[in-house]
Design goal:
This protein has about 220 residues and is of the alpha/beta class. Helix content is about 45%, strand content about 25%. Bound molecules: calcium ion.
């Protein structure tokens, strides 16, 4: 699970990130509204946490622009002003939840997990394409258990069969920001996945699109 936290109080942001990491939640930080919006538009996050009062763009502005661009990532709004008005304003702009500052990390974690348990996500337990069945919870493909990274890659490819999934997107989503530029990594995992597909007798194959990324297509 990967979240984006947009917060201008850097000390607080780092502390929350540290605590989320302990809960196995990856957390990227942005310290102003503009960076936050750019990162949120990447669509790689499971949940976006927005402070309301931010330099450059407010949390509410970010949320509005995300929704205008049809980015449905669940959003938790944070605000030091716990007034009802503020809360209503946040929720009206399309936030999924609202947390007043100061908050306990345990509370934030509970809210993140609650958003992840929504029915839309639960229905997403199995992804099917041709004769392939990927089990999201077990991270298995036609019964073969995959490593976390193999699973992450095949899951992304299977979400949009026939469409190119950019290499940078995969690196970001599966490896996290640290692996940017580590293109070779991904090749190794793609070739392992191809072996798995052969073993299964898959009717689908992974194509490389030079300079762009990969797509899964009918063989
Ligand atoms: Ca702030």
């Amino acid at each position: 699970m990967r979240v984006l936290y947009v917060e201008d109080e850097q000390f607080l942001a780092e502390a929350v990130k540290h605590n989320l990491n302990k809960e196995d939640i990856e957390c990227d930080l942005a310290f102003n509204g503009e960076d936050g919006l750019n990162m949120a538009l990447d669509k790689i996050y499971d949940v976006v946490i927005l402070d309301v009062m931010l330099p450059k763009l407010s949390g509410i502005d970010i949320l509005r622009r995300m929704r205008e661009r049809k980015i449905a990532t669940p959003v938790i709004m944070l605000s030091a002003l716990s007034e009802v008005e503020d809360k209503v304003h946040g929720l009206e702009s399309g936030a999924d939840d609202y947390l007043a500052k100061p908050f306990k990390t345990a509370e934030l974690v509970a809210r993140i997990k609650a958003l992840m348990r929504r029915p839309a996500e639960i229905q997403d337990e199995k992804v099917k394409y041709l004769n392939l069945v990927y089990d999201v919870n077990e991270k298995s493909l036609n019964g073969i258990t995959l490593t976390a990274k193999e699973a992450g890659i095949i899951h992304e490819l299977l979400k949009t069969p026939g469409k190119i999934v950019k290499k940078d997107f995969l690196l970001n989503k599966v490896w996290g920001g640290e692996a940017l530029g580590e293109d070779n990594y991904i090749e190794v995992y793609i070739s392992r996945l191809r072996k798995v597909l052969r073993k299964i007798g898959s009717r689908a194959e992974i194509n490389s699109v030079r300079g762009f990324g990969y797509k899964i297509v009918e063989a």
